Structures are given as structure tokens and as C-alpha cells.
Known about the structure:
71% of the residues lie in helices and 0% in strands. By secondary structure, it is mostly helical.
Amino acid sequence: xxxxxxxxxxxxxxxxxxxxxxxxxxxxxxxxxxxxxxxxxxxxxxxxxxxxxxxxxxxxxxxxxxxxxxxxxxxxxxxxxxxxxxxxxxxxxxxxxxxxxxxxxxxxxxxxxxxxxxxxxxxxxxxxxxxxxxxx
Length: 136
């Protein structure tokens, strides 16, 4: 199978989701969510620090880890479709992706954002610039 940016994002989404529900990552938090039938994973605004609440950071991180994985899958499908139909991705999308990844790298430096997504963003930028110059 040929490498595509969309397939890479789908792969990241699947791996994120699997890790999120696995016992060696956020499995215990995920089981807690399942006990409530995924209806209530936090106390919402009651946990908000400005309202004198105490946030459950482990549940918060577990939710966003799995949710990010689930969001990456349809994003990857969309990117794959755009690549197949137009041959390249819009430059604005690549720059927005790079900025979001850089924010993630700044916020969580020892993560997949740094080691997987940052090189991928630069790869997207490089290949898109190379193909746009070749078309002239």
C-alpha cells in the first residue's frame, strides 16, 4: 500500500484509540466511563477550578486521548479522499495542521506530537511544496 497522509492519520487515530482503552494506558479510567455507560465521565462545571471545583485530571486526559484518536480517523479519511481526488492537500490545511502540532509539541513535548506528528507535518509541507513546484 502506498503511503498517504490520510492513511497515516487514520493509523494514528486507530493506535490512539486502542492505546486509550488498553490496560497499560487509560484502561482503568475507560472502565470507569463504561460503568456509567459513557454518559457522565466528569462532573462538568462542578469540576471547574474557577468555581472552586477539583478537576479529575486522569479522567480528563483519558477522555481526550481516546476522543482525539476517534477524531483522527474521519480526518484521515477526509485527507485521503482529498489527496486521491486533487493530488495534493491545500496549503492552508497543511499550515493549520503544522500550527496545531507545534502547539501540541509545546504543551506536551514528550509525546507522539513531537515524535510522529511533527515530522509528518514537515513531510506534508515538503511534499506539497515539491509537487506544486513540479506542476509549473
